[in-house]
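Q: What structure does this chain adopt?
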Amino acid sequence: MNKSFFRQVIITNRRISRAVFSRLRNFYYRFLGVKLDGYVWMQSIEIPHNTRDIKIDNFCALDKGIVLLSAGEPLPHPRIHIGSYTYINRNTFLDAILSLTIGQYCAIGPGCYITDHDHGLDISLPPLQQPMIAKPTKIGDRVWIGANVTILKGVTIGNDAVIGAGSVVTKDIPEKAIAVGNPAKVIKYRSEL
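A:
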């Protein structure tokens, strides 16, 4: 038997193992209360608490090291909602206390931080006693977010937009825009390409 045969067997066994563990994670998180609309491909992710405040639609893929953090009292709507066919790459952190929505068919690069809140700046209070200030954050459909992007509270990113790697998004980005930088600014539109 040649080496390529054994290599193929090993690769196949790894794929089967990942698929089995992904299905077990689906079962586990459903049991904890995460609303999974169909099958979601999941590597080793973390949902520390408030699992009932998270909704993930069918055919999403969540890679290793992703954290879905939902904090606060129960709300009538999901705090974190990820649309169908969206892929979130490794070590991305979604942090919500009000509403963080990601549309369908999105691609989110590794190492991103996306939130719907921050702390106040009252001079009479120490940093950890500052009140939380929240505004809904919304990412439209078919949005492509590069590696290590930060998206702050209250931002809406329009459908078909592209956010360049390392950008910090502090204001709304219109549909089909390509935005880069800190703070992120529109440099052109996809329709111009």
